[in-house]
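thought: fold this chain, then report.
action: predict
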Amino acid sequence: MSAAFDVLPTPDWAATTTISIPRDSSADPAEWARAVFDGSNAPVVVKALFVLREVAAKILRIPPGDPSMLAFDRIVGGEAVIDTDDKHLHFAATVKPEPAAGLLHVVTAVKFKGLIGRLYFAPVSILHDPITRSMMKSAARRMGSDRIVAAKSRPVRTALGSE
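observation:
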């Protein structure tokens, strides 16, 4: 079971999104959490949806989005835990890489706070998986590129031991 359910044992809504990653990927959940939720590297369509989220926030009179809302708080059992308790809902998510299995998981749990939370989350629930999946795939591409760059930048030793 995911640590997301330690934070919210009885969520109103929950989902798990899983993608394939290379088996030689990082096993560090903190590194993956930062990569997945790095707004500056989010796909363009996701950035546009975050702009729409801000419009909805004004209409519903909920606090504007803040990048710190998606920052992980701690590592528990190999998962980076994000725990954001906001005015309209309580959101918990975990990021868990399993490179030996070639998988990356993001588990999300949400507890609504009244009608505003339910109204806000109605469209989010429909778009959650495609948005999360695109952010995870973008992170996997970037982390794969970093691995390739690091491999190319290693010094090469010749038979004489020089570089």
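thought: worth noting. Residues 73 and 82 are 6 Å apart (CA to CA).
final: tokens above.
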